[in-house]
Amino acid sequence: MAIDTKKLAGMGEAALVELKTLMSLSELPAINAFRAELKNIDESELFAVSPMLPEYVESTTKNMRFLVGNYNSTITHAKNRSGEVEVLMAQLTNH
Length: 95
Prior knowledge:
84% helix, 95 residues, mainly alpha, single chain
């Protein structure tokens, strides 16, 4: 079975568009600002509002930190995979 290089090239172009879309997203400034603000609130003030609030805020900020870390990792992977797809496509179109 022969390799359909035109089909692969089209799929590669579509993949590059998706990868570049991922890379163009912002650095999540609102999430980072919200997380920083939550971290600056004194625990006693949170407790005064509700005894459950300090634990909930701590859990929320931890999960947001995890989300931002995963997001940054995804951006790095998108950049790396973009380069790989471009090299692969160059190889396909040269033959």
